[in-house]
Amino acid sequence: MTTPQQQPRAEWTPDHTSDEMMSIAAARALADGTRCFVGIGLPSTAANVARRTHAPDLVLIYESGTLGSKPDVLPSSIGDGILAETADAVIGVPEVFNYWLQPGRIDVGFLGAAQLDRFGNINTTVIGDDYADPAVRLPGAGGAPEIAASCREVFVVVRQSRRSFVEQVDFVTSVGHGRGRGDRERLGLRGAGPTLVITDLGIFRPDPDTRELVLSQLHPGVDVEQVREATGWELTVADDLSTTDAPTAAELSTLRTLKEASS
Amino acid sequence: MTTPQQQPRAEWTPDHTSDEMMSIAAARALADGTRCFVGIGLPSTAANVARRTHAPDLVLIYESGTLGSKPDVLPSSIGDGILAETADAVIGVPEVFNYWLQPGRIDVGFLGAAQLDRFGNINTTVIGDDYADPAVRLPGAGGAPEIAASCREVFVVVRQSRRSFVEQVDFVTSVGHGRGRGDRERLGLRGAGPTLVITDLGIFRPDPDTRELVLSQLHPGVDVEQVREATGWELTVADDLSTTDAPTAAELSTLRTLKEASS
Amino acid sequence: MAEIVSLADGVGRLVRDGDTVALEGFTHLIPHAAGREIIRQGRRDLTLVRMTPDIVYDQLIGAGCARKLVFSWGGNPGVGSLHRFRDAVQNGWPAPLEIEEHSHAGMANRYVAGASGLPFGVLRGYSGTDLPEHTDTIKQITCPFTGEQLAAVPALNPDVSIIHAQRADRRGNVQIWGLVGVQKEAVLAARRSLVTVEEVVDDLEPVPGQMMLPSWAVTYVAEAPHGAHPSYAQGYYDRDNDYYKEWDSIGRKRDSFEAWVRDTVFGGEVSGK
Amino acid sequence: MAEIVSLADGVGRLVRDGDTVALEGFTHLIPHAAGREIIRQGRRDLTLVRMTPDIVYDQLIGAGCARKLVFSWGGNPGVGSLHRFRDAVQNGWPAPLEIEEHSHAGMANRYVAGASGLPFGVLRGYSGTDLPEHTDTIKQITCPFTGEQLAAVPALNPDVSIIHAQRADRRGNVQIWGLVGVQKEAVLAARRSLVTVEEVVDDLEPVPGQMMLPSWAVTYVAEAPHGAHPSYAQGYYDRDNDYYKEWDSIGRKRDSFEAWVRDTVFGGEVSGK
């Protein structure tokens, strides 16, 4: 997954950046004790913040073969030595996918995305209409298609823009809610799919009836118009739209300490 | 596999029993460096004699999950601790069968039998015509069907009698040469099947044309008539029938030391 | 997270009449104490699953706990036959025993499929043998790429799997080393699981060859020192080969077996040394 | 039995133009020294197989060794894109690159099938994604017991697999620990194999978490100290995160990449520290 440069484009308070708000909102979504399959980058940052704040018993699973890693610094790749050295169990890659992911043992799959669409489908393969001659060749699927299929639910964390938040992804790398309600069942996908999408502007949840992603929460200092501007489909806003609590001092210092230690 | 009491029924010299001749003849069949999948009982005894005499680099593989065991006493079961402690690698049981046996990595499968027929098919399941109401219930297949299918060749070691050496087995637990030439290919069995059957009376090899087991070697002091008496089909004797060399003093003492240490 | 309970509670809460139960351990770490506890609690109509039904299942079958046996090799390793198993199959004593018979490779792949959340496993197996004629859980499958015919076997997903391990920590993480057999697969394939251990410790020191089962993959952990006897627990005690020989005479006759159940299982004596 | 040879001899004897070659190592123990040796020996038309084509394959692709890539994730982990890979796919430089694209689960099961002597593997995967439309090595298969539809993928059996390990003994037995990825499967699936190691020692002391490859399962072993750099070798050296970032600028432009090939691969300089 690509890692664009961090651009603090909306510093509405002197206290935190929009990226920090995103990571902290994502961290809060992970309840203590959750078994979380962690993608590298934003998901890994959020999961490690969660483990250091409200969720000390969060179980981190990395596709490189670690169950229950407890890194004391942010791993710079999903295969950092620190993940193996601090794990409850180290296993081979086939076992990760076959014995642990596929049977539905993992509560939350925590994914990033290059493109995400109205129904939470994820593209990390190619930008452009022609697979054989892509405008941009992205890294590809990795573990994501089966993480999105088999985890009990999926959280996506992604920086939001018209480029990343599109009506329909150019390539379905990982299925969210297909083209709407009933599609996952029809496809035999056993997890609930994306139940939460956390961006640098707010939080989206699928509508229970249509499965379209609906803006349900705004981060502090962001207004609906800003979100609409950064959404590539006709935005629906939840009736009970709420505002995210600003990061606490403890959350911020945890996040910053982690980031500093890893840079 | 059942372990009948040892009955030294033909002590033709004061030097060794027929069972000892059988074990030593079986041991000699294992060339140094051979990767041998070892059943417990007679095969394990023979393999361990071989490793201590002419074949120090014999690779012993036990279905309990050990590659390259180097036990210094005879294991009393295929899962003795000594097998794991002295192995080059200890692996799980699924891996033994899937990664090591099935792809044809093992040179010789060394099996016992309760019943063996004219074409080298093995029965370790039931005696009697009715599977649902057997005259004698035997232990069953264990690893044998796939050992017999996938090893490059199979050696069988069995005490010979009209009861054990039958025209046709009551139940095909493990396929030898089916009903004759071409049957293994037709069944998709990739190894060569039983190329050697070692008994307490002599040694049988499959006829290259018919695949019927043919007496090719007599142990010292045994005559063809004795073998015919102990064979449940019309015995064919090889043109170039030879006589097994009597056990050497070194072979006998190795075998006896092993046996004593394990009793 | 695995809860740490007593052996009696673990068996009592998990094993119900009519359940499909797997006690695994391939010659090493056979959960004998749990087997005796199942007899003690009087469970009935169990479908017992095990690659190598040896003494532990001879005891459960003789005590009338089982309705059916799913297996690949039933014997007393290094000694001979299982007399209670034979008596049940040949004479229906103490109850008829239905059997579903596989090879080791087939059983191992059934557990692997079960642990993997797949409905079936594929292997090169059974071809030409008489097993498929009598076992309806063996079918053929065709490779969609090469057209080759292979064997397919359905996943095993026991209601309860029980294994024995060397150690657990107080959070219920389990550590096993030495021959690990098919134990991880048996636990992961099961709906509920019980791991009996030699001891519960504060911290699990790493051991070469260890296999770890995280606490959250196990239902209950129960301390059962010497719980694998007469099999062995590497690092704790050796195999009691004499007991295996002795079992041949205990199990041979119905009355000697019943005396063993009365005295050893219900008399509260510790078996063996 | 594995023969112990030099890295140049190992690569020279095993890797031929047109071969299907897998260099495996999942973030840990990536066989970089062997990758550079393949460039040095000028191999062409290789079908390169690897779950995570990262820097090592960016180098091979940029140097023109590859005709085709079979993979599931191609990026510079923690940094961004692989510019040589992108340039080959988007612009056909230095040569067009055919791709065969899977998910990690699919690739892992293809190696497992290859190591198991099976023609295909089965998984719950790909359903609803656009991958099957573009990858003809993804098919459907029906469970013969339940009727469920699952994905089937063909076995991977590379002509040559190359991995890096911490140690081997003088007989060629290989010891790996830490994250072991899919290396065992890659070696067992291959027709021929080369294991580069940090060092060849007299005796392999057991290490917790070790995976052993017996000598007779490997074709050649070659000593290549620091051979996984810029990835890491647990117990020997850490990941060189700066190198991964530096590669972003080396690989970004064709001329800076060509300078790297000239200076580092052919100039005989040791890359990195």
Summary tags:
heterotetramer; A: 263 residues; alpha/beta; ten-stranded mixed sheet; three-stranded mixed sheet; 8 helices; 25% helix; globular; disordered N terminus; C: 273 residues; three-stranded antiparallel sheet; 9 helices; 13 strands
Which structural class do you get from the secondary structure elements of chain C? Answer: alpha/beta
User: Strands of the largest sheet of chain A, in order across it?
Assistant: 4-3-2-1-5-10-12-13-14-15
Radius of gyration of chain A: 17 Å
Distance between the termini of chain A: 19 Å
Tell me the major beta sheet of chain A. Answer: 10 strands, mixed
Q: Summarize the largest interface: chains and residue counts.
A: A-D, 56 and 56 residues
| Proportion of residues in extended strands of chain C | 15-25%
- Shape by Cα distribution of chain C: globular
Level of helix content of chain C? 25-40%
Total strands of chain C: 13
Number of helices of chain C: 9
- Overall mean confidence score, pLDDT of chain A: 92
Helix content of chain A: 25-40%
Sequence of secondary-structure elements of chain C: EHEHEHEHEHEHEEEEHEEEHH
Question: Could you provide a short overview of the structure?
Answer:
Chain A is an alpha/beta fold and 263 residues long. In chain A, 25% of the residues lie in helices and 21% in strands.
Word description of this protein:
- The complex is a heterotetramer, with 2 copies of chain A (263 residues) and 2 copies of chain C (273 residues).
- With 263 residues, chain A is an alpha/beta fold.
- Chain A is 25% helix and 21% strand.
- Chain A is built from 8 helices and 15 strands.
- In chain A, the strands form 3 sheets. A 10-stranded mixed β-sheet of chain A has the order 4-3-2-1-5-10-12-13-14-15, sandwiched between helices. In chain A, strands 7-6-11 form a 3-stranded mixed β-sheet, with no helix packed on it. Chain A has a two-stranded antiparallel sheet with strand order 8-9.
- In chain A, helix 1 (18-28) crosses helix 2.
- Chain C is of the alpha/beta class.
- Chain C contains 9 helices and 13 strands.
- In chain C, the strands form 2 sheets. In chain C, strands 1, 2, 3, 4, 5, 9, 10, 11, 12 and 13 form a 10-stranded mixed β-sheet that branches. A 3-stranded antiparallel β-sheet of chain C has the order 6-8-7, covered by helices on one side.
- In chain C, strand 7 (139-142) and strand 8 (149-154) form a beta hairpin.
- In chain C, helix 3 packs across helix 4.
- The longest helix of chain C is centred in the middle third of the chain and has 12 residues, at 104-115.
- Chain C is globular and about 55 Å long.
- The mean pLDDT of chain C is 96.
- Classes of the chains: A alpha/beta (263), C alpha/beta (273).
